[in-house]
Amino acid sequence: MAEEREWIGITVNDASFQGIVTGDPIIVNTPNGSKCAFIDLKTITPELSANGQWVDTPVLVPLVVMDSRKVDVIEKYVKDRRQLYVRAYYKAWKDADGTNRHGLIVTQMKLGSKGQKEN
User: Fold this and answer.
1) What's the mean pLDDT when you consider all of the chain?
2) Domain 15-111 is classified in which CATH homologous superfamily?
3) Does residue 42 sit in helix, strand or coil?
4) Which of 5, 65, 105, 107 has the greatest count of CB atoms below 10 A from its CB?
């Protein structure tokens, strides 16, 4: 008999974020000869405060880009304060040394304005 799936029909692992890149992306060469990029994206989440008012709360979202074509775009065009929209999924993995890692892996991205440096 075939193995029964635990969550039939519930297989969504997708998130989207829009915000501003904080700091320059970090580009890393991987052991297999490819590159990946790490980006921190600041977005805003509306939350209900203790006094019953809605307030915009900044949230820092760490992202990982593993697609070499996207990493090339990031190297050329994405710097601190760049607006960015991404779609991502959550993934857990083990590094070559056996360390458990996890992150939001970018599948799509759209570049927004370059932004301005704050004085």
Assistant:
1) 89
2) Nucleic acid-binding proteins (2.40.50.140)
3) strand
4) 65
